[in-house]
Amino acid sequence: MKITSAKVFVGGPKKNYVTLKIMTDEGVYGLGDATLNCRETLPAHYLQEYLIPCLIGKDPRNSEDIWQYFYRGAYFRRGPIAMAAFGAIDMALWDIKAKLAGMPLYQLFGGKSREGALLYAHATGKDIADLEDSIAFYLDQGYKAVRVQCGIPDMPTSSYGVSETKGDVKNYITNFVTNVPAEEIWDTEKYMRYMPKALDRLRDKFGFDLKILHDVHHRLLPREAAEFAKEVEQYKLFWLEDPTPAEDQDALKFLRQHSTVPVAIGEVFNSIYDCNHLIQQNLIDFIRVCCTYAGGITHVKRIVDLAGLHNVRTGFHGAPSHSPLCMAAQAHLNAWAPNFGIQEYLVLGTPECDALFPSNHTVKDGMFFVSDEPGLGVDFDEKEAARYEFQRGYHPVTRLQDGTVWNY
Ligand SMILES: [Mg+2]
To answer: 19 pairs with which residues across the strands?
Structure first.
């Protein structure tokens, strides 16, 4: 069996999804996601110019050897661009393998450990009343877990994860299309004074059965993160996400010495070597990698097993940064993983996205139910894809009030 050709598509509804389709001489094809948010053409270029020529003629069933060929075979290793490109190839090869077996992908990992996977949605509010409406919206749909992000009074611009529009309960898919990056202003003191009060009010209104998550988005210094974690501990968060930038991994020891709040990190990690220290030193409770820019199913499954050894659970990234193909790869891992924790969920659900990526995966009552179709269980409509073109976009850039550039 041989790979005969492969194509890359860039574009999508409000998003530049990077989709890889690998064709074989037996007619079976595989699909993978290489979407690197706000840098989408780079993994696409890497695939087209460097990787696809090496794929032609290879046996697609040897997914391990192909992964090692690209990773170990390259002199320059790791990085989100290369790992997103490897991730797409790897997903597509597992898709082919499971289609050949006539099984849903999770069966190749060891079958299902659970019927449905717990999801969390993104609740957002310009102010606390808005945020309460947003949480109520998701509770009505059956969600049991929500990430809560709230506008901070007197902050000149919206803070991370907060819709610019008052009354926008969904903040569903952020459109980053801009000619140059937008700029946001951040004020740590205002945030640290206000956010605990907001959490207090949410616990008063919704009680303690609701699973509440909160994303700091790398904004705090190590001492500030420890103080904040200590203060919000009483609100029993499901997790506190990215309290500090994770390049300085030992900084989390300081937080751990002062608080037992569960910590989730890793959505920008692209290698098991980024995760290893945090997992082995028990500095985190949830690992947040994703199947796209952490090198695909082969590499992420290794990270999941390493995490399991140290009682760290999964909480895969699922922001609209990824296409439904990445979400499907993660859904199959979520169905299997003995150390599954929770799954971030935003991608599926718009008619345009469903038309581009048809699938029978279902979401009900805040749970993801994986399809039993052979393979990843997601297809790709090339005619639909022809409607979309690449549009350059950027994440915003964050500055402090005095103009200093800060962590986005
Ligand atoms: Mg996050």
So the answer is: 9, 33
